[in-house]
């Protein structure tokens, strides 16, 4: 059946029905160059206007440029009733095919997950890992979905001022990867290289917007953090798991600076992130008070990965081999479903799809 309008498989020809069947309408090039002009089929096809057709619609280069622009700006929407995905790495008698990273990216509703503050850091970290090493494994549809969700992440930070440092690191890693894959080397990404260069320009624009982000001072008449007793402020600092957050908070007031430099605070932070390291366990046994735990933290950070902590993560059911958000659930057939659940870190998510 003929189609009307643009389509990614062709320039988008226009057709009209006649007594002899469907005929393609070929108009003057300057008529179609106006993107805002609508074609009135009845007006053009009244009478004996068949002699009006004079040639091709437009030149190949113009058509290709419009097609690339259209494909790059089309928002691909993925709407799935089930918010879970079956992880399959090989074909069996019951199931054929396997699950890819791009398919999981489309199925697990990350677009809605970033609106939940418990999941925002998890999704941002996962996208950072994909930007570092997995861009070449994404299909064209998954790439569109990736950048659509990434745009929503940036917009949320600009609107809510939530964790801009993490998103800046994500964009920096993505920019470095695209530079190495498109500008400094042979493009091995799915799609036209011009589309990726356009996306690279968009990333630079997002970086500029985040660098120019100004968080307004909140005017509140109630109790502020500085009004709390010192022991309560100290307890809140002990809940932090990110050293940069502790340092930034210490720059707010002289009192917070003194609390943030507490050696016991940095000792607790070292134990939280590196307690499974033999070197740190040996230091914990010793009663030497001359250890600079802040310096020790940043030294260990250079050699060992830090422990990741998220408000909510994806879960994997070992009985059903299904990946899902815990709030959404999944059709489990186990007698005790909770005993089969395993939280999935961002790196573990990437490893699930390495074949």
UniProtKB/TrEMBL annotation:
Pathway listed: Protein modification; protein ubiquitination
Keyword Cell cycle: no
InterPro entries according to UniProt: F-box-like_dom_sf (IPR036047), FBX25/32 (IPR040394)
Coarse class of the protein's main subcellular location: nucleus
Tree of life domain: Eukaryota
Cellular localization per UniProt: Nucleus
Biological process, per Gene Ontology: protein ubiquitination
Coiled coil spans: none
GO cellular component: cytoplasm; nucleus; SCF ubiquitin ligase complex
Alphabetized UniProt keyword annotations: Nucleus, Ubl conjugation pathway
Biological function: Substrate-recognition component of the SCF (SKP1-CUL1-F-box protein)-type E3 ubiquitin ligase complex. May play a role in accumulation of expanded polyglutamine (polyQ) protein huntingtin (HTT).
UniProt name for this protein: F-box only protein 25
